[in-house]
Amino acid sequence: MFDVLLTIEGRLHQSLRSQRFFFILESKQKVRTAERKDKMEAIIRSINHIARMATLYREQELKKYGLGAMHHTYLLNICRQPGISQEALAKLIFVNKSNVARQLAVLEEKGFVTRQTSQEDRRQLLVYPTEDARALIPVIQDILQRWNAQVMIDFPAEEQKQLLDQLAVVKEKSQQLLEKAEVGE
């Protein structure tokens, strides 16, 4: 009988240790998950802050040319692909179609782009750069290059390459998640 009680007590003790072990393990996993979540939020927050500061910088630099902070994205892509449709431009720069239409109206009013109805599909508007837009491309590229050079000045070339490679992976994963979400709509 004593042996049975010792066995039961041993199993009970072992069970409690097991439960405590799993509780501790589960707690550690929750902490790790929370730490990962905090790190991810910190990464996202940092990326957002960098993007916002870059936008403010571009806004200051482009103001003298009559452009807003995001107009550079439109002009660079339109100059790379003259005749791009508004819809294709929206997908390319990850902006909704109504915002693209509004921004293109501003750029058209300022003489940087023209929009023409497509001959193949009358529902599509094709966007073309003007000479004024083409003339601004080197200025825009210089502004972007100066920002990049200044924010990366303390990084050796190898670390710059490594950071850009890692960000390319994050960008690719982000794009895949966005595409999955769009398919799920």
Structural commentary:
A hairpin with a 7-residue loop joins β2 (113-117) and β3 (125-129). The chain is built from 6 helices and 3 strands. It is globular and about 60 Å long. Residues 1-9 have low confidence and may be disordered. It has helices at 2-63, 71-80, 86-93, 97-109, 131-151, 157-184; strands at 84-85, 113-117, 125-129. With 185 residues, it is mainly alpha-helical. It has a domain at 37-151: Arc Repressor Mutant, subunit A (Orthogonal Bundle). A 3-stranded antiparallel β-sheet has the order 1-3-2. α3 (86-93) crosses α4.
Question: What is shown here, in short?
Answer:
By secondary structure, the protein is mostly helical. The protein has a domain at 37-151: Arc Repressor Mutant, subunit A.
Task: Please tag this protein with its features.
6% strand; 185 residues; Arc Repressor Mutant, subunit A; 3 strands; mainly alpha; globular
